[in-house]
Amino acid sequence: MKKQVILFGAPGSGKGSQAKYLVKEYGFKHLSTGDILRAEVKKGTDLGVRIAGRIEKGELVSDEIILELLQANLDLDNNSYIFDGYPRNLSQAQILCEKLLANYNVIAIYFDIDVSVLTKRIVNRLVCPDCQAIYNRISHPPKLGAVCDYCHGQIYQRADDNEETVVSRMKIFQEVTSPVLDFFKEKGTLHTMNAADDFDNIRERIKKVLDNV
Ligand code: ADP
């Protein structure tokens, strides 16, 4: 059965960085709802303007909008995906696991980390708009200054990566998203990583999980 992987964890817990590696190593497609939403914002459509308002306040975008954009980007017959940033509440988890992925081998990987250390990570996060590479001003700065090491895109800081918005995002994670953990536990699909560990160790642990399920 084809594998479909869900990376689950608080904002800044390292899902996006590991996703990049898994795409390279296993040929998964990376499906980040945050990236899909930012692409819609960039188009400047009415929908994009509404989405931008929610993201800038650190609030979730509605389930209906997310599902529509998700389905427009999904080709499950031909691909194995890394879901990054979806599901983010119980109703999204039910739609994904009980409807869209009902006939697949679903592996949920939880990036477990104390949310109190994440604010510092997020306010120092920089990203490449072209290849979505993720940097950190302190722990992993781009070697070439303002341009991406991989594709030379112009590195920027996301509009929602500021202290004020992070407070709201973390609150939503704790109140609305983390209850989804019990849902995955009951399904028997949950694998927990210590997301405070270093990148290579986490990568190896994920590799072991994927090679053994
Ligand atoms: P992070 O992992 O740092 O939170 P994302 O790129 O996953 O960043 O998400 C950025 C923002 O996009 C979220 O704060 C939220 O407003 C919106 N978003 C992303 N995924 C979803 C989702 N599945 N449901 C609702 N809103 C979402």
Give a short overview.
The protein has 213 residues and is an alpha/beta fold. It is 46% helix and 16% strand. The protein has a domain at 3-28 and 80-114 and 164-212: P-loop containing nucleotide triphosphate hydrolases (Rossmann fold, 3-Layer(aba) Sandwich), CATH 3.40.50.300.
Structure, explained:
- It is a single chain.
- This protein has 213 residues and is α/β, with parallel strands linked by helices.
- The protein has a domain at 3-28 and 80-114 and 164-212: 3-Layer(aba) Sandwich (Rossmann fold), CATH 3.40.50.300.
- 46% of the residues lie in helices and 16% in strands.
- The chain contains nine helices and seven strands.
- A five-stranded parallel sheet has the order 2-3-1-4-7.
- Strand 5 and strand 6 (134-136) form a beta hairpin.
- Helix 2 packs across helix 3.
- It is globular and about 45 Å long.
- It starts with a strand and ends with a helix.
- The mean pLDDT is 95.
- Adenosine-5'-diphosphate binds at residues 11-12, 32-34, 37, 54-55, 58-61, 66, 85-86, 88, 92, 160, 169.
- Adenosine-5'-diphosphate binds next to helix 2 and helix 3.
